[in-house]
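Structure ticket #2291
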Amino acid sequence: MKKGLVLEGGGMRGIFSAGVMDVLMENNIEFDGGIGVSAGAIFGCNYKSKQPGRVIRYNVKYCRNRHYVSYFNLLTTGDIFGVDFCYRKLPFELDIWDHDTFEKNPMEFYVVCTDVITGEPYYHKCTDGMYEDIKYMRASGSMPLVSKVVSIGDWQFLDGSAADSIPLAYFQSIGYEKNLVILTRPMGYVKKKTPALPLMKLKYQKNYPGIVRAMERRHLMYNETLDYIKEQEEAGNTFVIRPPRELRISRTANDPEELKRIYRMGRHTAKKYLNRIKEFMADV
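Resolution: structure written out below.
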């Protein structure tokens, strides 16, 4: 039975997931594969590279660097997250991402992007953790309105969460029968239609109609997915970890103390359920 790790996005809400993942890594809990969306892709790749602590370390250190995340980036480059800083300088110079371990680790890792023409999800299996894989991770985390469309070959992408925010069903469809899902919203959360939709129509409708269609139905898709996850949880093949309460942090937060608070909450939640997680992951 293949065991999977499914990671929701949410910008800096993903620091909660990083706290959970670090506890799992420290306790040698292994998965056959993982799949991440947006921040879940960008932070989750560190599970395959076996680098607990890296996500919170570089976020706390660089979150106030204007080349990391800032309106300076948005105004000067069109991306609120600095592309060169985040996807070249940071992983290859400042806080080295172990892509050698990533490549050698048999754990599979997928990222989800949204095709801006069709509005459909695109699932990319990462291989060596190098430049093409990183470009897909960037595409997965490129939030509409504050990011440029990312071109890869003949494809054009934005944030994967627009088309498949929590890709449990997809992971089950490719053979992952037992899954641990890390959410970044608490129990009872109901997504509402985005108030930014008129701006998205104004910016994207002519050239990228798919992303508009995806965002129009995103809240419906998200809430249906939560219902499906609940069904799978009750069936016993899915274990869900979620924040105990609303995280109250913005997707682009740059306060180190707030990031530490969210990270500690993730660690505390993982430790609370650690024995149950071990039982769930055990071979029967």
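Closing remark: The CA atoms of residues 123 and 234 lie 27 Å apart.
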